UniProtKB/TrEMBL annotation, chain A:
GO biological process: transmembrane transport
Chief site of localization: membrane
Naturally occurring in which organism (per UniProt): Bradyrhizobium niftali
Topology in membrane: Multi-pass membrane protein
Domain ABC transmembrane type-1: start-end pairs: 88-303
Coiled-coil features, chain-numbered ranges: none
Pfam families to which the protein is assigned, alphabetical: BPD_transp_1 (PF00528)
InterPro entries hit by this protein: MetI-like (IPR000515), MetI-like_sf (IPR035906)
Name this protein carries in UniProt: Sugar ABC transporter permease
Source taxonomy: Bacteria, Pseudomonadati, Pseudomonadota, Alphaproteobacteria, Hyphomicrobiales
Protein's UniProt keywords contain Transmembrane helix: yes
TrEMBL record, chain B:
Family (UniProt): Belongs to the bacterial solute-binding protein 1 family.
Main location: periplasm
Name the UniProt record assigns to this protein: Extracellular solute-binding protein
GO CC term, one of those recorded: periplasmic space
Pfam families for the chain: SBP_bac_1
Keywords: Periplasm
Source taxonomy: Bacteria, Pseudomonadati, Pseudomonadota, Alphaproteobacteria, Hyphomicrobiales
Compartment(s) of residence: Periplasm
Gene3D superfamilies: Periplasmic binding protein-like II
């Protein structure tokens, strides 16, 4: 009997030691530590991203007076609006054109900076980043003065050469050009810095080998630089596409969507409908319409990144 | 050392006695005995104008023993509209919040009726015009209190010299200081001829065709002077009418004489146009003149603010009333109403008008002949006709008489200026009308 009691006690001790050990092990596990370290961020994201996102879905399902559930009613209403489809078209033109030129300019300038001797490179990198680090609302105000309808500094300069005046913000084509130009000016340094980092990671031996094989500069870019930078290009493009699609400040400050709504994009139109016209559910629906477009883009771009990751 | 123990009986007796003493004791008013009140006022353009509202509120707070806090919220980039929207959603925030034009109707369900403030104010200060009622009243209930600060008429502000030189019109003769207007000849046709003459002289009228309020307000008054309504008071679309067609035809002729970049103008553009000396006329409250007094005195002394030209259906001037709204979730409604009553007194109104240099317009009929408008200069009498002292024009807002929740969308989405611009840029009349009708039908969702 005494033996049995002793064995029971030993068994109980072992179990509790094992329990304590597993908790201890769990806490020591890297993934657990990582989880706890990221927990504050997860909570912040839940509070400031997840909750507003879910709330906007809820809002988008209500009627104008926000008293009745209408399901997809707001979306079906939007699909019948001529202005909404114009906004969809313009948002796509704005985002795709701006991202393309940001990527192109970023790529070219990154090469220039990469070829500057290391000693002087830092100050160039710093200067070229300036547009990206100034809050866009402020820098766009400066652009607004440059484009000002009546007192444009650009027009003044052009007039010295007998050109103009150009109706920068009052003519639909020029207004579109202007908002895209400012977006490219603001966003190109981001591409530049990402591409510069990618360029620095391409081994010099590859270029040396290509040079021995007689490759010209174009072949070096096409067969070495671009394949080595593909993932960075894809991720940067996706990231920029999301940010550009959701742009608000540049268009709002420069044109407020005019003339005749011809520079209106998703965010500015959502504000016009939701806040200024006091139809918050419809405004939320306009904003949410971006989600499927960006989701499709994200799937395509990220799938490609995975594929290449597996290949390598 | 002995320690006396408190028995249960003693504790109960002491508690009962102290409670009785507290209940029966005479009420002593402390410094903030009547609680707290939080106010969100519109941040005035005119330097120093906020001081008058602050002084009036503090004077009332000291008398009524209420602890007040005031925030001055700018309307730049729609900040005040965002605050109104956020507080309405959160059901929390200021007790009193200044709202303009469409907002009392937009948040009607969340505003405390204020008939007990507005009705005595009307009795004391005179009747309010139809636009103040249209925007501030629903089913006999006053949704908000008409506020003097911010309320404005956006009538013409003309350069006396340029109008005389290029159009041959002596605007001071039509609108003499201190006397009723003699402006029968000041109609849409004269206006158009003057626009053409001044444009040819190199001083075009500065009327915007953008999507901000100044452009929309001018379009609204011109449409109304032709009797053109996009949606009638019953909420039915009335876009395809002869009156709308006439208004568009007129606008097309006028646009030919406006600056070519007018489609991109915002609410600052017309001010700059006048102050820089490039234009012979703008449609604005006296803020441009006030800035010109400081920055371009030679321009300011040639400015004359006066009435709108008349059209076939009458003389309409764009009017934007501001209101003070009291949220129904306010925790100190009685104190708020007491303050709003204080701010609606004739003496308070006079202080608002004086502090704003005549910019602010009271909603009440007996308050349009205050000495400020007669006295400010240069030139003397420049603002005499600004508050419509002789009632020779109807004060109206663009998109009225449509039900306010529909009209707000017509106004905010600048349908009137867009129609005018589309048609002037060569779109067929019927295409423009069909587009506008489609937009208006979309605004009727509930």
């Amino acid at each position: 009997m005494a033996d049995v009691v002793v064995q029971h006690a030993r068994a109980a001790r072992t179990t509790s030691a094992r329990k304590g050990g597993s908790l201890h092990n769990a806490l020591r596990r890297k993934s657990t530590v990582a989880f706890f370290l990221t927990l504050p961020l997860i909570l912040l994201i839940a509070l400031f991203v997840l909750y507003p996102a879910l709330f906007s879905i809820h809002l988008a399902s209500l009627n104008k007076s926000m008293q009745k559930f209408v399901g997809f009613g707001n979306f079906t209403f939007l699909f019948k609006r001529e202005t909404f489809w114009m906004v969809v078209k313009q948002s796509c033109i704005f985002a795709v054109t701006a991202v393309f030129f940001k990527a192109l300019i970023g790529f070219i300038v990154a090469h220039f900076v990469h070829n500057i001797p290391a000693k002087g490179q830092r100050k160039w990198r710093g200067m070229l980043l300036v547009p990206w680090v100034i809050p866009p609302a402020m820098s766009t105000l400066a652009w607004l003065w440059l484009f000002d309808p009546s007192y444009s500094a650009f027009n003044y300069t052009l007039s010295l050469f007998g050109i103009g005046p150009i109706n920068w913000l009052g003519d639909a084509a020029w207004a579109r050009f202007s908002v895209i130009l400012v977006n490219v000016w603001y966003g190109a340094p981001f591409f530049l810095i990402m591409y510069l980092a990618a360029l620095k990671s391409v081994p010099d031996q590859l270029y040396e080998a290509a040079a021995i094989d007689g490759a010209n500069w174009w072949q070096k870019i096409w067969f070495i630089t671009l394949p080595m930078m593909r993932n960075i290009i894809a991720i940067t493009t996706l990231f920029s596409l999301i940010v550009t699609f959701a742009n608000f400040d540049i268009v709002r400050i420069l044109t407020s969507g005019g003339p005749l709504d011809q520079t209106q994009i998703f965010a500015t139109y959502a504000f016009r409908v939701g806040i200024e016209s006091n139809d918050i559910p419809l405004g939320a629906s306009v904003s949410l319409f971006m989600v499927p477009i960006l989701a499709v883009a994200a799937i395509f771009i990220l799938r490609d990144v995975n594929k290449r990751g597996n290949e390598s | 050392m002995s320690r006396k123990k408190l028995t249960r009986r003693q504790f109960v007796a002491a508690t009962a006695m102290s409670s009785a003493a507290l209940i029966t004791a005479p009420y002593v008013r402390g410094a903030y005995a009547a609680g707290k009140l939080s106010i969100g006022f519109w941040d005035h353009w005119v330097p120093g104008a906020n001081d008058s509202s602050r002084a009036l509120v503090n004077e009332w707070a000291a008398k009524e023993k209420v602890e007040v806090s005031i925030d001055y919220i700018t309307s730049n980039n729609k900040k005040i509209e965002l605050t109104v929207a956020a507080e309405a959603q959160a059901k929390s925030g200021h007790d009193i919040l200044q709202m303009y034009t469409w907002w009392p109707h937009a948040y009607a369900e969340q505003l405390e009726p204020v008939n007990d403030v507005v009705e005595p104010a009307i009795k004391q200060n005179g009747e309010v015009n139809g636009t103040v009622k249209y925007l501030g009243q629903a089913a006999g209930k006053w949704l908000a209190v008409p506020a003097t600060p911010g309320s404005q008429i956006k009538g013409p502000c003309t350069r006396i010299d340029l109008m005389k030189k290029y159009a041959g019109i002596d605007i001071q003769e039509l609108y003499p200081a201190g006397a009723p207007p003699k402006a029968d000849s000041w109609n849409m046709e004269t206006f158009l001829k003057a626009a053409e003459a001044c444009q040819k002289g190199g001083f075009a009228f500065g009327i915007g065709l953008g999507e901000t309020t100044d452009s929309v307000d001018t379009a609204g008054a011109i449409f109304q002077s032709f009797g053109a309504e996009l949606v009638n008071a019953k909420g039915e679309p009335t876009v395809k009418t002869d009156q709308v067609r006439q208004a568009l035809e007129y606008y097309k002729k006028l646009i030919a004489f406006l600056p070519p970049d007018a489609p991109s103008w915002d609410d600052a553009s017309n001010n700059k146009w006048l102050i820089s000396g490039r234009g012979a006329l703008i449609m604005n409250p006296p803020s441009a003149w006030a800035v010109a007094k400081r920055d371009a005195p030679q321009v300011a002394e040639q400015c004359w603010t006066h009435g709108f030209p008349s059209g076939p259906k009458g003389r309409f001037a764009p009017y934007l009333p501001y209101y003070w709204g009291l949220w129904n979730f306010s925790k100190n409604k009685e104190a708020a109403k007491s303050l709003l009553t204080h701010l609606s007194q004739a003496s308070s109104i006079e202080k608002f008008v004086s502090a704003s240099g005549g910019y602010d317009l009271p909603a009440y009929a007996k308050m349009t002949t205050l000495k400020t408008w007669a006295e400010v200069e240069p030139p003397k009498g420049t603002l005499y006709h600004y508050p419509n002292p002789h009632n020779h024009q109807t004060l109206s807002i663009a998109a009225s008489p449509a039900p306010p929740k529909i009209a707000q969308q017509i106004y905010a989405q600048a349908i009137l200026t867009k129609m005018a611009l589309r048609f002037a840029q060569g779109e067929k009349m019927e295409t423009t009308l069909a587009w506008a009708e489609g937009e208006c039908e979309g605004f009727m969702r509930t």
